[in-house]
Task: structure prediction
Amino acid sequence: MLPFVARRLAALVVVLLGMSLVTFVITNLLPADPARVSAGPHASNADVERVRRELGLDRPLYIQYAVYVRNLATGNLGTSVRSRQPIAAEIRRHIAATVELTLVAIVVYVAIAVPLGVIAAAHRAGWVDSLTRLGAVGGSAVAPFWLALLLQLVFYRMLAWLPAGGRLPLDVPPPPAVTGLFLVDSLLAGDLHTLGIAARHMVMPVTALALGRLGLTTRMTRAQMVLELAQDYVRTARAKGQAERVVLYRHALQNALNPIVTMVGIQTAYLLSGTVLVEGIFRWPGLGQYALDAIIEMDVPAVLGVALTSSLFFVLVNLAVDVFYATMDPRVRVS
Amino acid sequence: MSGRILWWVPACLLSLVVLVAGLASAPSAAPRPPQALIYGMRLEPKSFDPAGGNEQYTLKVLRSAYEGLVQEKFGAAQIEPSLAESWTPSADRSAWTFKLRRGVKFSDGAEFDAEAVRATWDRLRKVTIGVHRLVANTEVQVVDRYTVTIKLNAPDVYFLYSLAKVPIVSPKAIKEHDEGGDFAQKWLAENTAGTGPYRITRWEHNQFIQLDRFAGYWRGWSGRHLDQVKIVIVPEHATMMQMLERLEIDMHSNPILPQDVERLKRNAGLQFVTGPASETAIFSLNTQKPPLDNKKFRQGLTYLFDYPGMAKKVLGGFGRVPRGFLAPGLECYTDRRPPMTYDPAKGKALIEQSGARGATLLYHYTAAREDYRQAGLLLQDALRGVGVEMKMQEFPFITLIEQHKKVETSPHMAPLAMGAFSGDPVYFFELNFHSKNAGGPYNWSYYKNAEVDGLLQKARATPDRGGRCQMLGKVQEILVDDAAAIYMVNPDKVEFIRKRVKGYRLHPLDFVWPVRFYELSFEE
Result:
């Protein structure tokens, strides 16, 4: 297993290098001048040229890229042209919020979708089955940001049950930082009051993110389970008189799991890098909001930094999925 | 049977959600501290360096944390004393001597004196990110501890307007927080060290910025003032509006859309604030791009634009028909000039005379600016009637800046909201119509006229107000006659703030929504 992971990690370097090249070229094709952004919209053209020299943007593109890659090797993502602060530090500051939101959304949606899918498969054409079919179609038709706005309108504006956004109210200090995840940190600090408040702030963003994805995974679980339940080994298990719960979960689900895990993996990576609009609506100070700011203000190095971080997420999640296969499913041989 | 067992997972989760939602409906545990004003802002500034203060979000903090030698009188395009008690200009207005206020302290404890002024100027020479260009050609001479003379390389009757934009920074902070000769740029990006009434005490990135009183503020704290200001970052406009309507924020810096005005007016917790701004919105007309190099054609366009329609329909009545480019409220503005005229017949005749019928024009407008899209549609409609096609396309503002760097890449027309940054009318004209700014910010008309350049330069050096207003009146006239742009509208300011906020006044200068938190208080 270890050599397998090592090989994959080595390949990861190549992938990231490729990603850096592609994003570097694309962001340099953008019709925006980082020197202009840094100097401000009201700066004279002479000032813009001076800033260009200061930032080294007057050098040929290949040299700029070489410098960029050399810096990458030391974890340096460059300097934001807006704040002139290191981008790596800015991204670190925003990443915990996004990771927390994503993890909770994933846990919630897996914990609901998989059992629902199993139930739907076990009772085909029953009301659970019909309901999940409706949910699947409806859920994938609803854009998360629209759902976010709707939730906010109902639960904040009309009912006043939930806060409009943010991770905590303005007058509640964050728990002592250990992981950066407020739920975990407040638990570690034994501060149940802050834990409750932080959880309350997560209800709407998590719902907006999880709800749209529920349907698809439920249907997928159901389809896989239906296939597995028709297999001979299931009939054998039932014939041996095993409890239905054991048949469903220990036998069928375990075999049906591979495509579901792939799906959840993709969704996780997608969520980690795709919460931009939902974060904006709920004032969630995460990577998505940082990316959006960077895009609006055409902070090209920052956009590049976020793109690379997102690709790192994708690659790592894929690796995790592969490792999961290899450990969970004896049919998959690590080669 | 098995189904029932399988229900427990989703059921548990559901009850958890209900439990949390139930907790949520309980009243908020911690009450808001008294006298804290909540200000909503769409974008978080990335730096609060006082040298870089030339965009509206940074200014929200800078204007309350720092002060200049002089300041704008809030509500008018006039100058009043601040850190300088008085001043005397030389006869030709090329040297200005200031008597400095005594006993003023910076929030880091340093004393304000002539050396602080010099230290600020020294810093601006190195940290050239924003306001430095306003004082680029000036030199500070320390006469004694409380007197400085600022020498300019050319006479400037409007120098005080520029000076009001230069925040004086604590020399102690510049020295103590210097990192490798950066003049404390890194430190001042996140901290404040001015003589102003408030200072940054906490910054939760992308959440909020907290300002607290500087106890040693020289104007003092007798009377009613806010204890604290929390600037909350709310990226989404819909969320900002909901928080405003739920009275969770006191003020904000988002534009109010005309269609929202009536609904917001019905909210008993809000007050409606409106009044004229010193702003002129224009369509630049690229005078070097055929057929706009033809003066008759350009003149024709200016008669085809529906000015009253723009003010009444597009802006919902919150705008006025301009009398040329100079914005109302600025020195030398006069309402003796006639408003721009909407006369389709005359416009059609001029287009026909120009011989450029059948032309195609490109109009590139700013993304997410519905008013500019609608303004474009107004003109597009009128042009169709005279056989001219107008193609409209949306771009981010920063892209528009790029496109205008060269005549070849620039469109024929683009919208510009020219709000007065300072009260200097010459600067206001120069930005858009001086030949030195052609293609740069913001002479997108590529307008070059030696007579206009000369008149502006002369006006800047003319101490006699009547004399310089005559010159600026002439510039105003030439720019209308030359049809250097379509002067679309003078928009009004439209704001909704919480009723409990007292002391707020609209200020026509300093970009949009300027505010000085020291002047505000809450009603009893």
